[in-house]
Amino acid sequence: MTLPRARRRLLLLAAAALALLFCFIFAPSRFRDSKPHFPPAADPSVRLDLAPAEIFRRAFWRQPTPADRIVHAERREWKDAADAVQRWQWFLQVEPGPALLAALRDPAVFGLAPVAAPRREPSALPAWFPAAPRAGDEILQSPAGGLTIFYREADHMLFATDSGRGFAPPATGN
Q1: CB–CB of 149/94 below 8 Å?
Q2: Burial letters for 121-143: b for 16+ Cβ neighbours within 10 Å, e otherwise?
Q3: What does each C-alpha distance from 142 to 10, 14, 101, 149, 157 come to in angstroms?
Q4: Strands 113-114, 69-79: pairing kind
């Protein structure tokens, strides 16, 4: 029993479309996001990470929920010759779900407080990250000036960034 030629072509086309869809959904995000936002060639010690869910998890100490839509994510790590992180910085653009927004606004969870203008050390920002909050943005920041959030209620968009130093070597007991 053979299928008519047109039906075989249609089945092959449908199978190819499903295979492409499967590859796109399950391919690592670094293959999907091919546009570099920060030229690591400027500093060979910089490692650039564009894995959205992992950056979100490391930034907010939780997995993104289905209600959290990550639009952009970037993490930079400056490493020394021994591959130890000396400095790190990350940027996120997220359409936040209600649970994430509530957690960020709760001072007991992240320790953030509303501020009129954020304190930040100057750095090269990704093209998609705002250089300054817009009028009407809700601005939340750690009292130490680290974690900074801009939330635009008009388009339900959240921008977050933080940076810090590397990790101290473990203490050895003598």
Answers
A1: no
A2: eeeebbeebeeebeeebbbbbbe
A3: 57, 51, 15, 9, 19
A4: unpaired
Instruction: Give the containing element (helix H, strand E) for 148.
Output: strand 148-152
Do residues 123 and 89 touch, judged by C-beta distance below 8 A?
A: yes
Place of tokens 């591959």: 83
Rounded Cα gap, residues 119 and 97, in angstroms: 26
For 147, counting Cβ atoms within 10 Å of its Cβ (0-12 exposed, 13-18 middle, 19+ buried), the class is: buried
Q: Is residue 26 within 8 Å of residue 19, measured between CB atoms?
A: no
**Predicted confidence (pLDDT) per residue in 114-148, tens digit:** 998 887 766 788 999 998 888 889 999 998 878 99
Q: What is the mean pLDDT of the chain?
A: 77
What whole-number distance in Å separates Cα of residue 127 and Cα of residue 122? 15
Beta strands in 5-132, from DSSP E residues, in sequence order = 46-49, 69-79, 85-95, 113-114
> Can you read off the two tokens belonging to residue 66?
């289905």
How is the chain split into domains, by residue range? 9-165
β-bridge partners, 142? none
| Residue type at position 135 | A
